[in-house]
Amino acid sequence: MTTEAEKRVLLPARAWWKPALIAALLALLVLFAFGLRRDASFMPSARVGRLLPDFSLAALEGEATIKSASVVGTPHIINFWASWCGACREEHAVLVGLGERFAKDPSVRMLGINYRDTRANAGQFLKKMGAFPYPSAVDPDARTGVDFGVFGLPETFFIDAGGIVRARHIGPLTPTAAETYLALIGAGR
Amino acid sequence: MIWRAIVLGFVMLLGISLGMAGDAPLQQEDPLEPRLKSIAVQLRCPVCQGETIYDSHSSVASQMKALIKEKIAEGRSDAEIISFFVERYGEFVLMEPARRGAALLIWLFPGLALFAGSAAALLVLHRRKSLLGPATAAGTDTGELIARIERLEP
Amino acid sequence: MSGSLIELGMAATALALVLALCCVAFAIVGNLTGRPAFVHVARQSLLANLVLVTLAVATVVWSFVQNDFSVAYVAQNSNTRLPLIYRLTALWGAHAGSLLLWLWFLTLYSALAVLLHWESHPRSMPHVMTTLAGVQVGFLALILFLSSPFTELHPAPAEGRELNPLLQDPGLIIHPPLLYLGYVGFVVPFAFAISALVRGSAGAEWVMATRRWTLFAWLFLTSGIMLGGYWAYYELGWGGYWAWDPVENASLMPWLTGTALLHSVMAQEKRNLFRGWNAFLAITTFALSLLGTFLVRSGVLTSVHAFAVDPTRGAYLLVFLAVVTLGGFGLLVARAEALRSEARLDGSLSRETSLLFNNLFLMVATATVFIGTLYPLVIEVVAGERITVAAPYFNKVVLPIMVAIVMLMALGPVLPWRKSSVPKMRQLLMVPFLVGVAAIALSFALGVRDLTALVALAAIGIVLSSIALDIRRSVRARIAVSGESWWRGLRTLALWNRRRYGGFLVHIGVTLVTFGIVASGLFLETKTVVLAPGDRFEIGGYALRFDGVVPVEGPNWAARQANLDVSYGATPLGVFAPQRRNYPRGEMTTTESAILSTVSGDLYLVIGEELAGNRASIRAYYIPLVNWIWAGWIVMILGSLFALSQSRVEAPAARRAGGTAMAVRP
């Protein structure tokens, strides 16, 4: 832009800068128009298309250990949540709804991962909001979260029967978004 | 207050050490800290607005710093640690865009713009000079004159 | 009852929209049909709009003062425990109110421009008023229909939420107004440039008329940016003042083009050169001011977790931006032939040429910041990937260009107009060149190895010595004729030629800022230590003792505060207490650093994580010479004010005086 305009002063006889200036301006406006339509939470996941990372985490309730190997074989929805996360409250009902649906229909299983939280706070959160109809594992030091490439909560991953991560949703999950992702892991309605 | 600040400033500029009172031993930085810093300033905090994980006070950033420290202790190289994060978070996590692919363009842009701009300016200066010949001394204040006439709007 | 008050504000704004449209119509028709009465109606509408919008602003401010939570904007950004001073300034604490402040300044500038130039520029007035009122229409419609601070809540909540805690700070009381006074101020040069283009007379007239407006707006934009940096420095707690954040870049771009305009208008004023270019710069600067608002307010460049962005508002801002830029640049393209410079650039070594390169560098810097800021968006739209372009890129790429601009400051002011010769140049620059070499040698001896820093330090030496020599030459010439004392001679020269000497002062301020930036970056010390109560550590020559973390309560926040007893040698300096504050109503946390500031540098303390056993991690910075940046800012303000103090009547006489001084020069 600089050079065009700079030359304009110096080479007034040649008018090539005119279409160039207007074209640059239009290109910019078109770029902004696309920018406005984009999803602000768009963030491609480096994990999508690859096998889910290995983990071995303690369950939130009980003594069990939840391992990544147990996820392979059945399509899974893995949701990262925490008691300190405000937006997690927004999606809570959606997750509980999905959990109840897949409690009856074992083609998909769900797993919560309680992320950088304390058991006490997490328990209180579930008491207030209602428990998930599926198990949660605890990731207090964000180790597994980092392996998944979690940016900020809430985030939900959709994993197919082969253990490959097919989609990642940032922000509160909505029923429509969930259906789209479920289709990707071969579990659409 | 100001005078004290100035005096203090001079004392420090001269590097005078007046000796320390007290007996408790001095706490030092964790020996891993300098390397942690050199790595952490290259990584972007995922939940912040363009801050490095070194500068950020968010808890995600402190978790990531703890992880880096652990990897340093394990004996991993800087490049290994950085690619550990890139693998998980994508190139987004790099504070500095890579000098290849699409991002190469922005590294080349300022140089190209400066070169093209200077070349155009010099070319035109030269051409004008040769086209017009030496400037005449008569026109010294023409610009000012025109300016003043134009200001006298009817 | 108060509900009716805010309705009054809304009604005033609606009436202002009608009057702004009225102003556009009457100014155009009056000009086309040659009816002065119509143009007069346009003038009165523009003046009335200042009153109406002032009233609208007053109703919102009063609602904050009264804690009237039936006003949605008040309920969202204030609560009864918020101190009065922040309730008064909460107007610009969020989106809708910020736009209202923008609009208020716009009406203020519009009214002032009309009052000040009505007599002197009657031909331009209809076009200037049309442009100003047109921009007002854009903002009035945005505020009324898409971003209203007048919306009411029924029933009113008993308590409001919270003003963004980052904004609960004395620095933020004046930072946005200063910045907006800068942004909006460029609307006057823009309106005059449009007028000149429409009239097809791009002589020096519009440049003379708007020169002071440009300097005025530039002064405020500079101050807004500097204060923003200062605020970020002590509020954000990372020891830095400039992060190359998109929001910051958005304010830097109009500053760069505004600086270019400030310089290149001189060429048009004195030599009638760069006519089209100046119109281009005036339009670009205002367009970039608007772009700043667009980028910040539309959500085009926000972070991952900014969920609440209104797409309609973004679309509206885009259309508004399109109308202004396509209108402005379109007009420029259509009228380009009328703007050809008749005068010519005729020597390769002249003030004109140095101004040309000053503009070239400033524009390359602008374009680089522009592309760097928008490139992640381009990549996202084109390739569907996310990349980061942040501080490391800009530091590596833009700083060298800035250093080149500083270097040009040594050359520009001392070069004569029209033509110079190589021997003369050698004579002018020999001593500054030696000073530059000495500066490099000294810095190298002190351990500076960074190339950009070395060149910057040399540039500072060169610029300062070049300015000093120039002043010395002028004063000598003066006292040789007048026989005054040295000091009186300098005084007389400076007072006669306030623009030149004000400019020198601004340049000296810039070198101080540059010195502060370079030195604080080069000799920065950082330490992160984990401390138990009673533990001591040292940084930058200071000794610190950690006395533990205690809870502290504020009016609307609760904090964890680390107490650090600081001493320098045997001198105790008191307890410094960085905090982490939690604002429960806003569910937000802020980091409050503790800063011990001296001329030689700042000790900057931040509280980190608390660990078991009453231990805490403390981050300490020693930032040398950082205060030179703020000192340089003050010098820049003083220089600008001195240049602005030259009255318009005095100007020709002073210019002649300056000319004499230059002619007497050996």
Describe the structure.
The complex is a heterotrimer of chains A (189), B (154) and C (666). Chain A is α/β, with parallel strands linked by helices and 189 residues long. Chain A has six helices and seven strands; from the N terminus they run ααβββαβαβαββα. The longest helix of chain A has 21 residues, at 17-37. With 154 residues, chain B is mostly helical. Chain B has a domain at 31-97: Orthogonal Bundle (Helicase, Ruva Protein, domain 3). Chain B has helices at 2-13, 33-40, 59-73, 78-89, 104-132, 142-151. In chain B, 26% of the residues are buried. By secondary structure, chain C is an alpha+beta fold. Chain C folds into three domains: 2-218 and 270-340, no CATH class; 421-522 and 630-664, no CATH class; 525-624. Chain C contains 20 helices and ten strands. Chain C is globular, with a radius of gyration of 27 Å. Mean pLDDT of chain C is 87; it is low at 303-308 and 649-666. At the B-C interface, helix 1, helix 5 and helix 6 of B face helix 9, helix 10, helix 13, helix 14 and strand 1 of C.
Characteristic key phrases:
heterotrimer; A: 189 residues; Glutaredoxin; 2 domains; five-stranded mixed β-sheet; two-stranded antiparallel ribbon; C: 666 residues; alpha+beta; 3 domains; six-stranded antiparallel β-sheet; 20 helices; 10 strands; 65% helix; disordered C terminus
| Poorly predicted parts of chain A | 5-13
User: β content of chain C, as a range?
Assistant: 5-15%
Uncertain runs of chain C with pLDDT below 50, 5 residues or more? 303-308, 649-666
The two chains with the largest interface, and their residue counts, are:
B-C, 78 and 95 residues
Strand count of chain C: 10
Helix and strand composition category of chain C? alpha+beta
Mean pLDDT of chain A: 85
* Shape verdict of chain A: elongated
Number of domains of chain C: 3
- Based on CA atoms alone, the radius of gyration of chain C comes out at 27 Å
Number of strands of chain A: 7
Largest sheet of chain C: 6 strands, antiparallel
Distance between the termini of chain A: 52 Å
